[in-house]
Design brief:
There is one protein chain. This protein is mainly α. The chain contains 2 helices and no strands. It is about 60% helix and about 0% strand.
Length: about 55
């Protein structure tokens, strides 16, 4: 029973720490960076330089 209480307390502390870290991230932060529009062109150039066809 004591082990269960200790495990629950550890999980709660980890949860609070993660919540604090998430709250510190600015609202204008964009975690999903999309590839540049000419990404396909550079992939074709790299593949051509290696002598391989891109598999996309």
């Amino acid at each position: 029973m004591i082990r269960l209480l200790i495990a629950g307390a550890a999980v709660y502390v980890a949860y609070r720490i993660v919540r604090e870290i998430i709250d510190e991230v600015p609202d204008d932060f964009d975690p999903l960076l999309l590839p540049p529009p000419d990404d396909d062109k550079s992939l074709r150039q790299q593949s051509a330089a290696m002598g391989v066809e891109p598999e996309r």
